[in-house]
Amino acid sequence: MIAVDVNVAKLALARKLGADATVLAGETAATEVRELTAGLGATLVLDCVGSTPTMALAAAAARAGGAIQIIGLGGGTLPLVAGGLPFDCSLTTPYWSSIVELGGILELARAGKIQAHTEHFALEDAAQAYARLRAGTLQGRAVITPHG
Fold first, then answer.
1. Per-residue confidence at 109, pLDDT binned at 50, 70, 90?
2. In the CATH scheme, what architecture does the domain 2-98 have?
């Protein structure tokens, strides 16, 4: 698993949580992903932001026959043009999953292959959570509950 982010602290967290490699987002990120995959590109790219730059990076980093899933709702665009994606690469925007897929995710979590990293906030601190989200300083996901 290769994690890509603009924030060095988030890349360190990704390493701690099991990423095999990390790449600082920028002009050379797709090239670095390809180098880390013996020139092939990523089999699966999960874009958790969904902005125009991250979708362009996803298209540049995916391999032929691979898959790109735009999970984030950043409002970006990815022009659909001939040759814009690697050959036979699928592009999806999943916002749900089946019970079978959920079971697979739970199995990965039980096996320690994936971990959720969250920061908890009390309801009265929701504005702070959103401010940190906008600033990009959250480590993982924010969980807002009545009493934190």
1. confident
2. 3-Layer(aba) Sandwich (3.40)
